[in-house]
Amino acid sequence: MNADFAIIVAITAVGGIILLLVGGVMVTIAMRPKMRLKKRMESIGTIANSGTVSAKAESRRQKRIQEKLKGVGAKDKKEGIADKIAIALLQAGIQMDPNIFLMGCIGAGVLGAVVPLVMGMDLITIPIGAILLGAGIPKFILGTIAKRRQAAFTLHFAEAIDVITRGIRSGLPVGECLNVISREFEGPVGEEFTMIVEGQRLGMTLEDILSRALKRIPTAEFKFFAIVLQIQKKTGGNLADTLENLTEVLRDRKRMKDKIQALSSEAKSSAGIIASLPFAVLGLLSVVNPDYVAVLFGEGIHLVYIGLGTMATGVMVMRQMINFDI
Q1: pLDDT tens track for 19-59
Q2: DSSP 36-69
Q3: 53 φ, ψ (degrees, to nearest 5)
Q4: What does DSSP assign to residue 75?
Q5: Single pTM value for the model
Q6: Contact present, 193 and 185 (Cβ < 8 Å)
Q7: How would you classify residue 69: left for phi > 0, otherwise alpha for psi between -120 and 50, otherwise beta?
Q8: 46: exposed, middle or buried (Cβ count in 10 Å: 0-12, 13-18, 19+)
């Protein structure tokens, strides 16, 4: 009895396993065309799922674009002092050998250290003068010139993109549109696009041309323009519509900057008045009672340093409060 029962259980188990295998094979055969279709559509980057693109396919597409754009606008890993000075001079639009500029900064630093020493000022003023004349002031001047040049470039950049958009829609190639901008525009826009056109004539690759241009104009708008050109060259796409969207963004940013400047003009005027009051009072006291002021620059010279430091800190804080990055 027990043996018969065991035989029945074994036959039932084997039959169940056979049925499961047969069912699995039938399901696999039935689903094979759909699985092949899904796999094929995944390989080209899209999956038809209720008319939407899957997140996995979109992620693969973004990775392919990032790999193709690798290195666009990337900074060099190792940059010496001469390289940094060269980049700062390029951004400021100054044609000068970095080594000559560096020697000039060293000479100015030595002068800033010698003058306080000759005038018999405190020893603390010697390193301060050397740092200010040798590094601080030249860096500030270069940074100011570079920011003005970038602002002038961005101001007319939207008009240049409009020329490219209209040229592409009228049938002109991108290279000819760039050539038109280099001929018709003046200032930083014309200079930069002239360098791009000359680089193409010399046979340089688009990656090298845009990489050098981004070192001269490291703005978000120009970087986006460079990335769009890279995508259009490597993967294709509607370049005119993309550039038209960029011009709208540029004009919206300009309107927002003008609005912020108008709203913050009162705060800037207050900061200028507050910062100039101590110097105005000091000048009046020097005329009315010079002996009284002489004590401040003699025994109380440390108070002058403290006052200048606190004033500079206050001006920087107020500047950061009224300046916004858009």
Answers
A1: 555 555 555 555 555 555 555 555 444 433 444 445 555 55
A2: HHHHHHHHTT---BTTB--HHHHHHHHHHHHHHT
A3: -95, 130
A4: P
A5: 0.61
A6: yes
A7: alpha
A8: middle
CA 149/CA 152 separation, integer angstroms: 5
Residue listed under structure tokens 């105005």: 280
Distances (CA, A) of 155 to 91, 123, 127, 148, 251: 16, 47, 40, 10, 9
Single out the residue of 76, 135, 81, 141 nearest to residue 105, CA to CA: 135
Render pLDDT for 69-81 as a digit per residue (tens, 0 to 9).
444 444 445 667 7
Residue length of the chain? 326
* Cβ–Cβ < 8 Å for 74, 241: no
Q: How far apart are the first and last CA of the chain?
A: 89
For 282, what's the count of Cα atoms within 13 Å in the CB-facing half-sphere? 13
Looking at the chain, list the stretches that DSSP marks H as alpha helix, in order from N- to C-terminal side. Answer: 2-43, 55-68, 81-92, 98-118, 125-131, 137-169, 174-184, 187-201, 206-216, 220-234, 239-288, 290-298, 301-322
User: Hey, where are the domains in the chain?
Assistant: 12-44, 246-326
